[in-house]
Write a structure and sequence with these properties.
alpha/beta, Flavodoxin_CS, Rossmann fold, binds flavin mononucleotide, Flavodoxin family protein, 145 residues, Flavoprotein-like_sf
Length: 145
């Protein structure tokens, strides 16, 4: 099975979450800046993660999602996460990404989730890297069920 985590990251925080999830699912993590939708050919499991920027997915991730056509992700199992500050006004990226993955034909394995950062440039809040690994494990479990 080919598993890929596609991430965007301005300060490295989301990249570290992506790396932990990639380890958990037995795949690799790749920056959204370096790929196109064609790179997803042959991928069975796709996890997408980015920071919330301005209450929505980061601009580079939005540009990537805009390239996905209906059916592009047919046959691919997928899940999405974001990183966000601890605030009632954080907005949402993971939910929006999930909807885009679904409309491109992906089968969504689990509910979107957000990992908390302590400030704009990070670091991750205590315990969040462990939670990322656990979330990755839960994706593998969902695949098996
Ligand atoms: C331009 C900008 C806008 C941001 N807007 C939000 C926001 O609307 N909601 C939020 O929770 N965090 C916001 N943040 C904080 C990001 O969530 C934080 O920078 C990110 O999680 C860090 O991950 P990274 O190191 O991978 O970039 C913003 C950060 C930047 C730089």
């Amino acid at each position: 099975m080919s598993a890929l985590v596609v991430f965007d990251s301005n300060y490295g925080t989301t990249e570290s979450v992506a790396g932990a999830i990639a380890d958990a699912i037995g795949g690799s993590a790749v920056s959204v800046s370096t790929i196109s939708p064609d790179s997803l050919t042959g991928v069975d499991l796709l996890v997408v993660g980015c920071p919330i920027n301005g209450w929505r997915p980061s601009p580079r991730m939005q540009a990537f999602l805009d390239q996905l056509n209906p059916g592009t992700l047919r046959g691919i199992q997928a899940a999405a996460f974001d990183t966000r500050v601890h605030s009632p006004l954080h907005g949402d990226a993971a939910g929006r990404v999930t909807r885009r993955l679904k409309s491109a034909g992906a089968h969504i394995l689990t509910r979107p989730t957000g990992f908390i950062v302590d400030g704009k440039t990070g670091p991750l809040a205590d315990g969040e890297l462990d939670r990322a690994r656990q979330w990755g494990d839960s994706i593998v479990a969902a695949l098996a069920s």
